[in-house]
């Protein structure tokens, strides 16, 4: 059976949260008994493949699979319920192919204009290449305490014509530490951090369900 749902985390820039969100999404579905694989398209760094190896080593459940891929078609032929595409920042043709095949595209961005502007241009570029704007969802990541800055970022991204997740992900050392031990940002040692990550994950799942019925 080929993959029944695919969700991609994409950006042109590195460091915005593609891998972080890929793992959160993968963990969320795996916890609901889906068979999940992260397709890691960053073959030089293989951060999600390494993270899954660490997860196994640490005995963290639910189990999640990961593999490095070059080909989107090959990834989609695999027998998993969900394939999460952890995108590659520097390959335009691959990124476009992932965007075309994915049921939902998650675009992480920081709150600064320096982060948002290129990510909005990237989203516009995807639309210019035939990707339906409905498939695109922005997630604001690495927020600080300023509610004003977060509200401004929401407005900027919505005004650009995109759906923005209501829940942002704050910049927290606890998230960093969790990921360093093979855990997702919803699996930290801190219930409040887990709740925030789960709220965001819930929105992403709801959107995927809305778009596909899966
Ligand atoms: N909300 C956050 N809080 C703390 N650290 C974060 C957060 N989001 C991402 N990071 C960290 O920032 C770095 C880059 O994030 P990552 O998800 O790997 O980005 P990308 O895959 O887009 O390059 C990683 O070290 C990651 O652990
Ligand atoms: Mg990455």
UniProtKB/TrEMBL annotation:
Q: Which Pfam families match?
A: CbiA
**Coiled-coil features, chain-numbered ranges:** none
Q: Which InterPro entries match?
A: CobQ/CobB/MinD/ParA_Nub-bd_dom, P-loop_NTPase
Domain of life of the organism encoding this protein: Bacteria
Q: Do you know which Gene3D superfamilies this protein is assigned to?
A: P-loop containing nucleotide triphosphate hydrolases (3.40.50.300)
Can you give the residue ranges of the CobQ/CobB/MinD/ParA nucleotide binding domain?
Answer: 7-170
Could you identify this protein by its name? Chromosome partitioning protein
Give the species this sequence originates from: Faunimonas pinastri
């Amino acid at each position: 059976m080929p993959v029944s749902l695919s969700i991609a985390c994409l950006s042109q820039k590195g460091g915005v949260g593609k891998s972080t969100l890929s793992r959160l999404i993968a963990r969320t579905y795996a916890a609901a008994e889906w068979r999940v694989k992260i397709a890691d398209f960053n073959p030089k760094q293989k951060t999600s493949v390494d993270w899954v190896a660490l997860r196994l080593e640490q005995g963290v459940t639910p189990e999640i699979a990961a593999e490095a891929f070059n080909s989107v078609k090959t990834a989609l032929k695999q027998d998993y319920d969900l394939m999460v595409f952890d995108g590659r920042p520097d390959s335009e043709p691959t990124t476009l192919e992932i965007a075309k095949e994915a049921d939902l595209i998650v675009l992480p961005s920081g709150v600064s204009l320096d982060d948002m502007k290129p990510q909005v241009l990237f989203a516009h570029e995807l639309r210019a290449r035939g990707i339906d704007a409905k498939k695109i969802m922005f997630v604001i990541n690495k927020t600080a305490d300023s509610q004003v800055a977060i509200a401004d970022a929401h407005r900027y991204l919505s005004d650009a014509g995109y759906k923005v997740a209501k829940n942002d992900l704050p910049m927290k050392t606890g998230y960093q530490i969790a990921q360093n031990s093979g855990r997702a940002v919803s699996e930290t040692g801190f219930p409040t951090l887990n709740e925030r990550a789960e709220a965001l994950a819930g929105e992403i799942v709801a959107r995927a369900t809305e778009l596909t019925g899966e």
